[in-house]
Every structure is written in structure tokens, then in C-alpha cells.
Design a protein that fits this description.
400 residues, alpha+beta, Heat Shock Protein 90, five-stranded antiparallel sheet, five-stranded mixed sheet, 9 helices
Length: 400
């Protein structure tokens, strides 16, 4: 599919370039031809008005010097005299040219079989007709066509190479999104497979008549636990879909971020206490941002929940919110094993878990991905640093 998309992009781009080049070259050719024809006729009219005027070097500096000859006509339209740059001794040929010009019934025209342009005019000596050789004009146009063909060919090759490069560059985000989608479907299927297998197995065991009431109760509890895990996973997937669709922006307003952070930390104090952890929270007052209050609170909850799950026992988790110029910085740090560069690079990817051996206990690997999407929708950035036995998550947002 991606190859067809790249090929389609190249074909469309080349078709547009070809159309532009053809239109440009056709315009240049037509304008040049029209200019040559206009200049030739203007010069022929001047010659027809003074057919036997002797020119001198330097005359007609702004005009065009044409290889021409003039036929002076009598009152009856018969040939009287002839003069010009050519050998005019063949009177039969001159009569034939004069007859061909008269047959057109026009004052100005072209005799293509002879490669001549003619123009009737009047002078003090009577009526005359001027014939001009068109060979130089035609050679100029032929040379222009060859030049345009060479330029067009070179341009098409150059644009083809550029189009191939642009096609790869333009399709790269689509290719990345496609790979992410396939990986997402594979990961989601894997995460759903385990609880579904457990539910199916326990449901089959419930139908067996040989188990007592206590065993059946365990089977039911297992089904209920797996169902809740699946519901949590589906809710996280729906939240990711809402973040990806940009629905956050519809609920944005000016929010007291200091209050949001303080209120978001309160429910975690008893959870931390039960786990033997300490929560040290401090927020600078009066920090406002433009965003969705519910989603900003969700970011705080995700970071605090992540710190709780991956903190060492009897450690202290610190939460800080402070202003930094026109932006504010939220920091959540917890003691724990140092994250590797690979973990820091991939930790915000969907379904990525630092310690997969912990299974569902460590979550679904979607929380930080949701937080990343929310922060980006708020024109901020989120990142992680790990040093000295401390893993610190940072959220930077513009102050509103």
C-alpha cells in the first residue's frame, strides 16, 4: 500500500510538473512566434511604403533586416519591376508568386509552399507587394523548440529525482503511523488475549459438575478480576482515541493549575501511606494555564500513580510545581532503579513497560502514552530523566 502511495505521489507530481512545463513552453513559443511575425510584418510594411529606398549601414537599428524582394505592380495588377536581395531573373516564378498572393485575397499572408510572407502596400510609384523569406524565422522557432525540449527533458529528470525524494519524505509519517497502528493492534490483541483466556478457562470450569461451591466461587472471582482488567484496558484505549482525535481542545479554558495539582495529589496520600511511601508535595500558588482541567488532573494522577508503582519501598516521592518565566514546570520524582537510555526513549510509547515481568500489576503501558498525548495537545512537552537512583518526570506547559 505504501509503495502504491509513493508511486501515486510521484505520478501526480510529475503530471503537474509536465503540465506546467508544457504550458510555459507553449506560452514562450507562441509569444516568440507572434513577436517575430509582428516585427516581420512591420518591417515589410515599411518596405512597401518605400520599396526602392536605399539603405545605409546603421539604418533600422531597432528593426529587423529581412531577405526580401519587391514587385512593383501596374494599374492592372501586372508586374512592372522587381528588386531586392534575390536573383529575380525568373519572371515566370515571379508571376507565379504574384498569382498565388492574389489568390489568397488578403493584403498580408503566407505562402508556405515557398517559405515566403507577402504584404501589399502603396508607395509614390503605385501599388507594390513585398515578399520576405521566412527561413530565418522558422529556424529561430525550431531552435527554440529544441532548446525547450532539452530544458524540459533535463527538468523532468531533475523533478523525477526530487519527486522520489519528496515521496519518501512525505510518506514517511504515514509509514510510521502505519507501523504504529500495526504494532498497536498487535499489542492490544496480546494484552486482551491473556484475560480472555483466563475468563474462557474459568467459564468452562464453572460448567463442570465435579467442583464444589468454594471452587466455583474462585472461578467467578477470577472471571470478575479479569473482566475489570479488560474494562480498564478498554477505557485506556478509548482515552487514547479521544486524545488522538483532538477532542481535548473543545474543553479548554483558563485553569488554575496550582489548584489542579494540589487537588490531584490529595487522593494519593493514603495510597502512598499504605505502601510505606511518603509523598512530599509543594506547588507554587497562582499558576494558570490554558487547557482542560480534567485532562490536566489526569496527567498529575498518571505521574503519581506511576511513581507509586515503581518506587522503592520506604522511599519518598516528591512533587513540585513552579513557574519558569512564561512557562511552568511540574516535576514528579521517585526513588527506583535507574532507567536505561532505551527505557527513557521508549517509555512514552504505547504498551511499553519497563518491567514486563510485573504483568498487569505494573499497568497496561498506556498511562504515560496518554499523558504524553494530553501534554502535546496543551502545547507542552513531557520527558524523563534518571540519575542517582531517582527517576524524574517533567511536564512543561505555557502559562496562560
Amino acid at each position: 500500500m505504501l509503495k502504491r502511495l509513493r508511486l501515486k505521489f510521484i505520478c501526480i507530481n510529475m503530471a503537474m510538473v509536465l503540465a506546467v512545463l508544457l504550458a510555459m513552453f507553449a506560452t514562450v513559443y507562441q509569444v516568440t512566434r507572434q513577436d517575430l511575425e509582428t516585427e516581420s510584418i512591420r518591417t515589410m510594411r515599411a518596405i512597401a511604403a518605400e520599396p526602392f529606398r536605399m539603405g545605409r549601414p546603421g539604418d533600422l537599428e531597432e528593426g529587423v533586416r529581412l531577405p526580401y524582394f519587391v514587385l512593383q505592380l501596374g494599374r492592372n495588377g501586372d508586374l512592372v519591376t522587381a528588386g531586392g536581395y534575390f536573383d529575380l531573373s525568373d519572371e515566370v516564378m515571379l508571376q507565379e508568386l504574384l498569382q498565388k498572393a492574389q489568390e489568397t485575397g488578403e493584403q498580408e499572408g503566407v505562402l508556405r509552399d515557398y517559405g515566403l510572407r507577402f504584404c501589399y502596400g502603396r508607395s509614390p510609384w503605385g501599388r507594390s507587394v513585398v515578399f520576405a523569406d521566412m527561413s530565418s524565422e522558422q529556424k529561430t522557432l525550431d531552435s527554440l523548440v529544441r532548446t525547450c525540449a532539452v530544458i524540459g527533458g533535463v527538468s523532468m529528470v531533475a523533478f523525477l529525482l526530487i519527486s522520489v525524494f519528496l515521496a519518501r519524505w512525505a510518506v514517511r509519517p504515514v509509514e510510521k503511523a502505519w507501523d504504529q497502528q500495526r504494532q498497536f493492534v498487535a499489542d492490544a490483541s496480546h494484552e486482551l488475549k491473556t484475560p480472555l483466556t483466563v475468563i474462557l478457562t474459568n467459564a468452562e470450569l464453572l460448567q463442570e459438575p465435579g467442583y464444589d461451591e468454594q471452587s466455583r466461587r474462585k472461578f467467578s472471582e477470577s472471571i470478575l478480576a479479569m473482566t475489570r482488567q479488560m474494562r480498564g484496558l478498554v477505557e485506556n484505549l478509548l482515552e487514547l482515541a479521544r486524545v488522538d482525535s483532538g477532542r481535548i481542545r473543545t474543553a479548554m479554558s483558563r485553569v488554575d493549575f496550582s489548584a489542579v495539582v494540589a487537588e490531584g495529589a490529595l487522593p494519593f496520600e493514603p495510597l502512598y501511606f499504605e505502601q510505606g511511601l511518603e509523598l512530599d508535595a509543594w506547588t507554587e500558588e497562582g499558576i494558570f494555564v490554558y487547557g482542560s482541567e480534567d485532562h490536566l488532573r489526569q496527567v498529575v494522577e498518571i505521574l503519581l500513580d506511576n511513581a507509586r508503582k515503581y518506587s522503592e519501598t520506604s522511599g519518598a516521592v516528591t512533587l513540585r510545581l513552579r513557574r519558569q518565566g512564561k512557562r511552568c514546570l511540574l516535576t514528579v520524582s521517585n526513588p527506583g532503579p535507574e532507567l536505561s537510555p532505551e527505557d527513557r526513549k521508549n517509555i512514552f510509547k504505547r504498551f511499553y513497560r519497563v518491567n514486563r515481568a510485573r504483568g498487569m500489576e505494573g499497568g497496561y503501558g498506556l498511562g504515560l502514552s496518554i499523558a504524553d498525548g494530553i501534554v502535546r495537545e496543551h502545547r507542552g512537552r513531557i520527558w524523563v530523566e534518571s540519575a542517582g537512583g531517582q527517576n524524574s518526570f517533567f511536564v512543561e506547559l505555557p502559562v496562560g
